[in-house]
Amino acid sequence: MQYKQKDNLEIVRQTSGVIPTLPFFEVKNSILGKKYNLSLSFITESKMRTLSKQHKGSYNHMNTLAFELEKDSGEIVMNLQTIRSEAKEHNRKYLEHLIFLFIHSSLHLKGYSHGEAMEKLEDKYFNKFN
């Protein structure tokens, strides 16, 4: 298991491999702020399947889930296996898709729901950090 922490962001990889080198800290601070406490965990497909069923009622949410814990804290869990396999479907490279989904999940924690306003912000932050 690998672990990194900076600017109230804790990153844990519970699967084999290294933590991807992406601007997670900068994205988190831009969207949620420096004072927001965020945990980002990379988990197994099996664990994601369990969380998806428990919290969403189906196995359809296999790439990322975001959970608000308190007003200024939350958790994002991601399954890298699913993200890697679906990147081509979205005409993105693996790391591009990963940072996009981190932006997407961070915006959910900020209070945005799917729709035009969220899509505009996704584009803004994706262009800034990609």
What does this protein structure show overall?
With 130 residues, the chain is of the alpha/beta class. 45% of the residues lie in helices and 22% in strands. The chain has 5 helices and 5 strands, in the order ββαβαββααα. A 5-stranded mixed β-sheet has the order 1-2-3-5-4, sandwiched between helices. The longest helix is centred in the last third of the chain and has 17 residues, at 94-110. The chain is globular and about 30 Å long.
Topology:
Layout: E1 2-6, E2 9-13, H1 24-31, E3 37-42, H2 45-56, E4 64-70, E5 73-78, H3 80-86, H4 94-110, H5 116-129
Parallel strand pairs: 2-3, 3-5
Antiparallel strand pairs: 1-2, 4-5
End-to-end Cα distance? 26 Å
Name the helicity range: 40-55%
Count of helical segments? 5
What fraction strand?
Answer: 15-25%
Task: Name the shape in a single word.
Answer: globular
User: What integer is the average pLDDT?
Assistant: 93
Summarize the structure.
This protein is α/β, with parallel strands linked by helices.
Which characteristics define this entry?
130 residues, alpha/beta, 5 helices
